[in-house]
User: Fold these one by one.
Assistant:
Number 1:
Amino acid sequence: MQPYLIYLSLSGNNLSGEIPTSIGNMLGLHVLDLSRNNLDGVIPGNLHNLTYLMALDLKTNSLSGTIPPSIGSLQRLQSLHLSNNMLSGAMPSSLQNCSYLEMLDLGDNFLDGSIPIWLTSKIPALIVLRLRSNMFAGQIPPQLSNLSSLQVVDLADNNLEGHIPLSFGDFKGMSRTQMVNKYLLFGFYRASYYEEQLTVNLNNNELVFTKTLSLLTSIDLSRNKLSGPLPQTLTKLAGLLVLDLSHNHLTGDIPEDISAMRNLISLDLSNNGFSGVIPSTMTGMSFLSHLNLSNNNFSGKIPKAGQFSTFDSSSFSGNGDLCGFPLALQCQQTDGFFVGLLGLFAVISIRKQWRVAYFKVVDAFISETSKVKNVMPRLQVNSGV
């Protein structure tokens, strides 16, 4: 092994067998990427020797066992990807020693226990928390809102219960100002030779975000056992792009001022027990390209103007007391042809495809800019660590 090697990537090479413990002798490594292979066995405990490691990516393998507590010795670690393996057990408390972590992706494993409260105080720089598709149980810690840089919260497909914390409306990293500043000042690159990426479930599709990851703000709490209302405090998240609360046991009305979430491009409240009328203010959410309110108890007339002219019946199906376009059941009183026509012209310039393609356009633009300038932000490690 090369003791002075800084970067090692063997991603996507169909490698099999166990991770050799000799990797722990590569003391100068900053980045170790063994993702997307067929590696099995356990994560070597002697990785703690890699004291300069900033990014560890072992996702999409067949690794088993628990997350070794020794990973907590990697105090310079900023990015940890262990998703899509067969890891089990609780999240090791030693991870709280990785106080510079920005990316924590442990999704698609068999991890259990509760979401530890120490995340909220010991890892203050966290930007992405992805714990989806595990077996975490208990309530969502309301203290998560103390993480001022948090932009992606993905806790979907677990066994979480209780109410959505009212404090979720206090995520500073999901305000528009914070989102833009994070992109301009820091970007989301780890180094000129390592590009950060994250798989996000959006509208039942898996999208991989790379250069536009710093622009993403998302809360996904779908497929849990959450109950109670949709907190009105969430409407304070003016910079939120994606909100998915589907497949829970949530009840009550949609808050009238939900339109304050003016940057939402995707809203999924399907398969819950929501009731009442759909607020007419939602027609002013001009960036909304995906809406799913199906399989609830909504009633009354579907608002007709603005973006609502672009949604088909699947967005509203399974609500027996809803009526109006685009459902077959028409209301007794209609607003006339011209209202619908004006709504159609109002949204014609912001078609759904444009917003889906937006991130791809930005990706291409950043790539070309990087080629011209030949400059890319590098990892920043605080001195004294």
Number 2:
Amino acid sequence: MTTLLGYARVSTSQQKLDIQTKALLAAGVREDRIFTDKASGKEAESREGLQRLLVRAEKGDTIVCTKLDRLGRSTADMISIIEDLHGRGVAVRFLDDGISTEGAMGKMVVTILAAVAQAERERIMERTNEGREEAKAKGVKFGPKVKVDHEGIKQAHAEGTGASAIAKQFGCSRQYVYKVLKEASERS
């Protein structure tokens, strides 16, 4: 026998869960099997209701939500949750969207959602790479910061070497040289 479990979420503590919980009850979910959160979807670890629901859900159960965006913080997150549940034999049904991973069409829905998640990940990578290339073109340097020899800078300055020459020698900016020298003078 399928056990219906409900999940409802609003983004702030001021919002009410009434509309979602009424829809879940009307769909046949028992009140004691409705898990709720009043938290932003971005903060998955603060969504205790979702965490309890995911632990509670067993093979053969169906999780019912009113809308897709109530379950995950992003499309990729929501699909990840659905794929995990599907792998455990737990179906997910979205009332307002008319989408379900139940029955013969369920596998197709999960496959389509997985394809959407993959496309979203690829688009994110594409945008990230475009931004990185644009930043490089503007002179932004990537990679670990080079550790500069502060003692060497102080010694070169003490020997009469100018800030520009020190910066060139140690691969840093003149401002950085002045910062190191200022910190050294404040300590002494």
